[in-house]
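DM from R.C. (forwarded with permission)

"hey, sorry to bug you on a friday — could you get me a structure for this? deadline for the figure draft is monday and I only need the backbone to look sensible"
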Amino acid sequence: MKTLRKIIDFLNSRNGTRFLSVVVAVVVWHAIKTATSNPLPITDIPLIIQPPPGWSVVDSSAKSVNINFRGTRDDLRYLNRDAIKVSLDGRAHTATNPLTKVLGPADVNAPGNARIENIIPAEVTVRFDRIIKKQVPVRLETLNILPDGFALEKTVITPATVELTGLAYLLDNVDYISTTPIDLDGRSRSVNKRRSQLVLPETITGIKVDPATVTVDLTITEHFINTTFDGLTILPMLPIGHCPTIDLTPDIANVTVRGRPELMHKLAAEDLRLFVDLTALPANRKSGTLPIRAVLPSGVLLVSTDPDTVKISLKE
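My reply, with the result:
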């Protein structure tokens, strides 16, 4: 009983009153802390990066963040990933060297009065680069080859140049842009391809191309080559039943013929015949000048003879 009396007397004293006040304050503090310290982690919140005007983000060490919130149930009720905005302001950093920023509550816009315990990652490094425009030529891309005897005589791409818009470090390595490959296999006619798509190298992305398509006109012609054979004998073609003595001046000539490559590569001088048609002389004429004519294999065309005429002298 004496001990209980001493406790009662102490609590009724000034010091006892102070002690009770501290105990009550601690209990109330714990009660308030418990009521207002409900945890709520929210993950994968998109990180909004603000580059300088005319610049763009090249790389970022994080594209989203996780935030641990604490607060009352009312404070946490309206918190969700879509309602929270996390921004990194890099508008003042007009340089290509990396910018490292420590994220804090000032960078977070969230509804309610919940406290932010921490942001993960707390530090983000980003790199910016200028957005530029560059004019580059359009280059024709083809697949396979034309059939033998055909050649690509002329190529017209409209427009011949296009404008690229993108990050400077990417466009520094772009000297041209290619058309979608056009297959030449089996083609013997000219090509007119409208709205042909343009193709950048696979390693380059995020580039705007203006215009995005071009018109491609390919002129395909049959391909011939010329070959000259020297010193071919000129033969006289006589009327039937006549055998005069004939002098031809000159009696040999050079001949140039034309044909498709695969035919001309096999052609030999023995395959060609040069002659003059003596039946073209009037019956009472014993001399004159006649053109040189040729008998050629199928597919071979006569380009010229040198000389193109001979002098004829007949002697009975």
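R.C.: lifesaver. Residues 151 and 221 are 5 Å apart (CA to CA).
me: no worries. The chain has a mean pLDDT of 87.
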